[in-house]
Amino acid sequence: MQRTILFSVATLCIAFSATGAEIVLRDHAIAQGAVVRLGDVAEITAVDAVNADRLAATPLMPAPTGDATQFLRNNELRDILALRGLDVRSLNLTGAEVVAIVRTEIESPKPGQALNSNDAASNEATTEQLTAAVSEHLRQRSGHDLWKVQVDADDDVLAAFQHAGSKAVIGGGKAPWAGRQRFTVSAGPGTPSATAYARIERLEMAVVTVRAIERGAILRRTDVELRPHSGALPKHALASLESIVGKEAIQGIRADSLLLANQIRSPLIVYRGERVSIRARAAGVSVRTYAVAQQDGSLGDLVTVQSLEGKERYAARVSGLRELEIFAAGASADDVASNVQR
Questions:
Q1: ∠ CA 80-56-129 to the nearest 5 degrees?
Q2: The Cα angle at residue 65 between residues 118 and 55, in degrees rounded to 5
Q3: Does the pLDDT at position 332 exceed 80?
Q4: Distance between CA atoms of 24 and 85, rounded to whole angstroms?
Q5: Which pTM was predicted?
Q6: Helix, strand, coil tally for the chain in percent (to 5)
Q7: What residue spans of the chain are helical by DSSP H?
Q8: Strand pairing category for 313-320 and 302-307
């Protein structure tokens, strides 16, 4: 399968350069084969139909296996397209922030088509469609995008949903929208409804380590990834990759662990015992002096320093490599200079 993806990528890179295409990411997608393609997860419009078709055929990743759900974020899709050789600057990527991808290798039943309760394949396809409809209902009612939905529907429910076709309306469920929930399936107001039950889990995207991180290591983009997390996140859990790249681990972190804000910090640029520059600012005037750092510090940290002459200690904020600042609002420049240098 990997060789197939690589061959497809090579063909696309040679034959196609995207120009001004509009890509609208769906919030739910069904992969039609072993490989997820751009056309599976997004609506695509281009200058001409040929380019749109070529874009739609762009391979992205292997499809999820079994009944697993795979999540793809908007910014991750942009990175993948860049790796596939497409000029992402010419693409207008909009739509959902996250698309949930499931896999089916069977033909989905058409609206109005009679349901054969003995046909396991048809039941499975209809259940997937019903699951997607319940997920969309949860997103609209709760305002939250990511849910893990496991529908428990009998043949009567599946038949009602299939008979309703594109007019199917999902109702029911209640806050906090998690646990075992009761839903109704109908063809709209005033029509008979069937009752379906589903087990619901709220998912949150969180930063997870993909390999073990040693204490003192500087985190790189390849060390972490966003993954869906079931239930409430710990207080210090991180949800942005951009916020952690370049940070330093202050302890060892195991692989496949949620990354917490209190496990990382900005790299140290001031060390205890070293001579540092202090800039005092007040009333638009700045005065520079020197002191000895009494603590380690990262950019923005407030650390204690000691003047070179005497034992006077005071706090200053780290502003650069071996540089700190004091802001003395309301004081004169002479007052600041006197306080810093004594």
A1: 95
A2: 105
A3: no
A4: 19
A5: 0.52
A6: 25, 35, 35
A7: 2-15, 38-41, 49-56, 74-83, 120-142, 155-164, 333-341
A8: antiparallel
